[in-house]
Backbone:
């Protein structure tokens, strides 16, 4: 059975590499020098996470993202 996960991608300011974090799996993230490699890496990270997580742990559901502007 296949399941979809939400990945938020940000650019690391030091290395400039993209970093992907799986919203539904706390602590599941990886980085790579480019987006195609990041996709492969994140698939591996998800598989590893699911193999080591407890089956009865409830996963969160992705709701959405917001961009909030605040005066500095």
Residues:
């Amino acid at each position: 059975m296949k399941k979809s996960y939400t990945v938020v991608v940000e650019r690391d300011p030091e290395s400039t590499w993209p970093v992907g974090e799986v919203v539904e799996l706390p602590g599941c993230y990886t980085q790579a020098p480019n987006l195609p490699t990041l996709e492969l890496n994140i698939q591996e990270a998800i598989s590893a996470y699911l193999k080591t997580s407890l089956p009865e742990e409830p996963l969160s559901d992705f709701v959405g993202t917001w961009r909030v502007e605040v005066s500095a």
In short: The radius of gyration is 14 Å.
